[in-house]
Amino acid sequence: MVAGEVGAVRAGPVAPVVVVRDLTKVYGTGAGEVRALDGVSLDLGGAEFTAVMGPSGSGKSTLMHCCAALDTPTSGQVLLGDDDLARLDDARLTRLRRDRIGFVFQSFNLVPTLSAEENVALPLAIAGRRPDPAWWDLVVDAVGIADRLSHRPQQLSGGQQQRVAVARALMSRPTVVFADEPTGNLDSRSGAEVLALLRRAVDEFGQSIVMVTHDPVAAAWTDRVVFLADGRVAGELRSPTRETVLARMADHERGA
Fold this sequence. Notes:
- The longest helix has 18 residues.
- The protein has a domain of 177 residues: P-loop containing nucleotide triphosphate hydrolases (Rossmann fold), CATH 3.40.50.300.
- The protein is globular and about 50 Å long.
- Helix 3 runs parallel beside helix 5 and helix 4 packs antiparallel against helix 5.
- Helix content is 35%, strand content 25%.
- It is an alpha/beta fold.
- The strands form two sheets. A six-stranded mixed β-sheet has the order 6-7-8-3-9-10, sandwiched between helices.
- InterPro entries: AAA+_ATPase, ABC_transporter-like_ATP-bd, ABC_transporter-like_CS, ABC_transpr_LolD-like, MacB-like_ATP-bd, P-loop_NTPase.
- One of its GO terms (molecular function) is ATP binding.
- It comes from Nocardioides aurantiacus.
- Keywords: ATP-binding, Nucleotide-binding, Transport.
- This is Putative ABC transport system ATP-binding protein.
């Protein structure tokens, strides 16, 4: 598949791995109150690549952080499988974030004093687990960093650092990977390589990925685009292309 031309074609909606119901998030009080999320209900499909798009302040990152247990909603539910995140204590939330959620940040968030290999293995090391050798080899080969494992982050290009971050997110075989503007700090070529890796993780490994992006070219790699506006779901698009995403964004800007 070529980025920006055609998304993956699916027969239809996939069983959800994350279920969001009537989610609200309010910051501040009184005249300073900001309603970042305003009753969002959404299913995020398994073995599916979903993009979340919307203008600045639409609630994209807040939604992702609530779904990834990095922030606590004011009200509503986020279900990861059978687990209601609001009902988990701190210890169970920590285990859930470590074992069942992967995260890819725009700024890579690698530990500068560790090698690429140590960064990839870090979540498992914290959990006191060793990587499965076959899975390790598969992921390292898929992201193309086998010859860079001994390098520290400062010895790697931005694209290579993000490859390491993707490998780290996949290594624990999480239920879902959240990616927050994963190509935002990359040039177009490196960005396309990272998007191809995420696409391959869905198609070949059955990974579920949810990506916040503002880029219609990035969104064209996904199976589904969910649009937010003013903290609410404003529509969705399946099998997106760059052109259909741009058209839908233009419709939203006109209030259509």
